[in-house]
Amino acid sequence: MTTDAAPPTTAPRSTPRARRRRGITGYEALGFPTWAYVVFFFVVPLGLVLWYSFGYKPDLFNAHANDVLSLDRYVEALDATFIGTFWNTLRIGVVGTLICLAISVPFAYWLAVKLNPKWRPLALALVLVPFWTNFLVRTLGWQIILSPRGFVSDALQNLGIIDGRLDVLYTAGAVQLGVVYNYLPLMILPLYVAIDRAGPALREASADLGANRWRTLWNVTLPLAAPGIASGCLLVFIPLMGDYITASVLGGAQGNMIGQLVASQFNTAQNWALGSAMAVLLMLFIAGAVAIFGGIALIVRAFVRRARRVDLDVELPGGAS
């Protein structure tokens, strides 16, 4: 007596509609805190700033009102003071980013390639040490260092390097020094990660093919580190453009930055509508500057690639297969 074997059963295929009926999965639930943080601490405040920018200051005792919406605050914000301060901030931001890049490239290369691996955790910890201290406290420390009656001024006078007191504090140079110090680790870390991930194999292959160290750096290491360079420039340039603590502590009247102008409308003038309009304009200008610099970087990258191809054609006239 024989019995028919039961046909094999297969699990029903999960369709998007079935997944929607099933509800939120565990992995999706784990991402909820991130989305909640972005919504409540970025989207909502940004929406409030944008909403306030269409209002006005009704009287001396109220900071804002939105019963009448207009673009008048944007017109009011675009005055000569705002434009001049923005150009000064842009200069400090570009110069500060370039200085951070010039310091970080050789340091990150040394950290990822030359330094003994057993000492790298200690070196990375030393890079991160400034972040263990409050941003304001670090900046106040530079105010003490650059003081005309500080120990640096006394040491330079004793060595005969300067004749009088050190006259750096409350200048644009002091602000430049402060922003480079405060944002330098944000350039070093992504560069280190990019160079470290490249690994030694390609550098060794370049050396085996006869390239010297400088040529390997230019043709192998830096192209592989390009994502880290781009990330570091963005991490430094964008927060630097909105920084007002460094300018307030070290700059005084000569080192004014756009962040101070925006903060003064909220804290001193109590004109939230005008301050919000300035903040929105600042974000738009920063986005435009990033887009322009990104386009310039792409053009330079295209020219560099073309120059490398021409160089290879000169060295290998018959072409490479």
Automatic annotation (TrEMBL):
GO terms of biological process kind: transmembrane transport
Residue intervals of the ABC transmembrane type-1 domain: 86-293
GO cellular component term of the entry, any: plasma membrane
Localization annotation: Cell membrane
Membrane topology reported for the UniProt record: Multi-pass membrane protein
PROSITE patterns linked: ABC_TM1 (PS50928)
Transmembrane segments: 29-54, 92-112, 124-145, 174-195, 216-238, 272-300
Pfam families per the UniProt record, alphabetical: BPD_transp_1
Keywords: Cell membrane, Membrane, Transmembrane, Transmembrane helix, Transport
Family, similarity comment: Belongs to the binding-protein-dependent transport system permease family. CysTW subfamily.
Matching PANTHER family: INNER MEMBRANE ABC TRANSPORTER PERMEASE PROTEIN YDCU-RELATED, INNER MEMBRANE ABC TRANSPORTER PERMEASE PROTEIN YDCU-RELATED-RELATED
Name of the featured protein: ABC transporter permease
Source organism (scientific name): Orlajensenia leifsoniae
